[in-house]
Amino acid sequence: MNKSFRTFLKHTAKDYYNQSVNPPVVRASTIIFKTMNELRKTQKKGLKNPTGGHFEYGRQGTSTTFILQQMLREMEECYHVFLTPTGFGSVFLSIFSIVRPGDEILVADPVYSPTRFLTQDFFHSFNIKTIFYNPHDLNTLKEKITKKTKLIYVESPGSNSFEFQDLSKIVSIAKKHKLFTAIDNTWATPYFLKPIKLGFDMSIVSATKYYSGHSDVMGGSLAVNKRVFKYVEKANKITGLRLGPDDAYLIIRGLRTLDIRLDKHQENAKKIAKFLSKNKKIKLLYPYKKGSYNYKMWNKYYSGASGLMGLKIKSKNKNSVLKFVNSLKLFAYGYSWGGFESLALQQEFRELGKRNYLKLDKDEHLVRLHIGLEDPKDLIEDLRKAIKLIK
Ligand SMILES: *Cc1c(COP(=O)(O)O)cnc(C)c1O
Asked: pLDDT, tens digit, for every residue of 7-63?
């Protein structure tokens, strides 16, 4: 991350008109014009110039959402950013923009489980076939490419099992076969990985997580290159997906400190990982252990690691694993992550979706931790007490 970008997040959108540091929240359905001629002129212009924003009607956004788009475009180093009311809206929009009945899509086996259901079940009913590939064996990807294949959909690292993939290799396979590519980059955000620069056509981030950073707003962003812009723009108009200006404002506010927060999440998570790695019953699902394939892939592409990690715990006594999770005092239990607070989640295998390439033994259990911005000494103390309960 270069210095100018950090500065950009702090300096953008100063509002000299209102003499305020931050931009106003502009709520609008109707956009008004001084003359009928002026209205017609903006209509004709269309959304040709993605840097300008386009006032026509509230569904296309207001100056508040345009500012958020500008900040994200700068960070992603991409052609355009579409905003959606949730992260999952961006997942949907990316696939819906590209695939049509009769097409096939190749999807990373460990995708976010709602993405799995969307592709294998919902899109299936529109005669779109999904094939899952092994994130650690790209031959399972290459071999499954047919004349009907349209899109490769990646999520890195894998949801809950944290597999890091050979991203450039995926891009080059896609280019060779003229396929489109999308990646869910919510874990790293463009602060640690810039997928469009790597050659992906589309990059999804759930703004609900680190962008907002305070667990009080939902949103999504879909960054695109020039190649797919026209497809996504068309689909975006049809779906009516739109992020409201109040939510956009909260996400702008979160972005001001994204770099600082992520640096601290990373620092804390590394300390926790160091502590947990000493426990023989625990295998860390976090890019920590040098020499592992996951570490190599992470190191090759990412400039940092965020605060979400998995623990694979070996125990013949599942109840004792539940006791460990339940006795944590500083970790709350709940879905989502990316806020300033620590969270814990014991995971049932069925919640992960039916994985083709994830094998867990009967005595292996998955726990997910989000390492927040608390004092890491307190978090370690909390974990130290609870971990003793694992039998
Ligand atoms: C949370 C999440 C989503 C969905 O985002 P929402 O804002 O909750 O809709 C998509 N992908 C990943 C990897 C996520 O963690």
From this structure: 888 877 777 778 888 999 999 999 888 899 888 887 776 555 444 566 788 998 998
Report pLDDT for 33: 87
Give me the number of domains the chain comprises: 1
**Pocket flag, ligand 1, residue 215 (CB < 6 Å):** no
Atom 5 of ligand 1 has which residue's CA nearest to it?
A: 87
Instruction: Give the integer Cα–Cα distance in Å for 335 and 272.
Output: 20
Mutate to test the pocket of ligand 1, among 86, 88, 91, 343 (most ligand atoms within 8 A of CB): 88
Tokens standing for residue 380: 């370690």
In a domain, 243, yes or no: no
Q: Is the CB of 86 under 6 A from ligand 1?
A: yes
Look at residue 350 and tell me if it is in a domain. yes
Taking Cα atoms as reference points, which of 136, 129, 205 lies closest to residue 169?
136
Number of other CB atoms surrounding residue 11 within 10 Å: 11
Boundaries of domain holding 355:
258-387
> What percent of the chain has a predicted confidence (pLDDT) above 70?
97
What CATH number does the domain containing 382 carry?
3.90.1150.10
Kindly report the protein residue whose alpha carbon is nearest to atom 7 of ligand 1: 87
297 found inside a domain: yes
Distance 84 CA to ligand 1 centre (A): 12
Residue 279, in any domain of the structure: yes
The whole-model pTM stands at 0.96
